[in-house]
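Example 294.
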Amino acid sequence: MINNIYSTVKIACYSGTGGTELAAKSFQSHLETAGCTCTIEKITHIIRKDQSNCALLLLLFPVHAFNAPEAVYRWIDGLDTVEQVSAAVISVSGAGEICPNTACRLGSIKRLTKKGYHVVYERMIVMPSNWVAPAPSPLPYLLMQALPIVVDQITRELLSGICRKAKPLWIDRIFSAIGKLETSGGHYWGKRIKVMEHCTECGWCADHCPAGNITMTNRKPAFGDGCHFCLKCIYGCPSKALHPGTCKFVVIKEGYCLQDIAQLPPQNVQVHIQDLKVGFFWLGVKNYLMDLET
Ligand SMILES: Cc1cc2nc3c(=O)[nH]c(=O)nc-3n(C[C@H](O)[C@H](O)[C@H](O)COP(=O)(O)O)c2cc1C
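Predicted structure in complex with flavin mononucleotide:
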């Protein structure tokens, strides 16, 4: 039984392709099991004035270009100033807590601190990467298996009052600052998404875009200037009728579906994680999984 120091927890979560949302739901379930009252607020383009009291704010976001998505910053800017409310910041990345990602929580921690939050805990969760290239097998499957384990670990640490602060690499502060250009790059990119002939005009993309950037115009999706670059519409389109018009390398060709990754154990899943040759880029993922094993 955990000695629970927070009775009410508000989870605020931005998610594009669902990885961060899965983590948020897992936190909700673990926190409620530990006796907390817990709500989830989805961060989108709409700034809601839901300022319900909580003892702990748990902020979750996917890492976008070594940063939090711009929508997360706008959401924090819209918060009322508080006194004596604790906060935890959890980033969800595809590559882990390695260079150039280690400064990705700095911007949101600074903003929360300005609003009066006392940020007591920060941590990186790793989920299967949704951009450029998938991690080599069986890492994506193992990451899905690892999610409830890491959430349980974080919940226990948080509720027992353990503080965890990271030390970002100085070079990553530079990467993070440069990464902010991704916001305007994303606006440009989103405006150029192509709608293929076989679009069934179902409107799924318009209904699910967290940026509210897609409208059905003459029964076809039309893209505005506010794309968050989250890739939800491209991967989630039921008829796979949306294709990038530029920088095509950003989208994983085989598609991206977390349910499929979780359900289909790859053949090499029995190989010991320390024996896997994963390449330099995925070392952060390997280390994350090895840390959880010990
Ligand atoms: C535009 C974009 C930029 C990204 N930048 C990074 C990054 O800088 N570092 C990283 O490790 N992962 C990066 N990712 C991968 C996501 O952080 C990762 O897949 C995350 O789990 C996605 O969460 P979601 O499913 O909730 O959207 C990026 C993804 C996108 C779409």
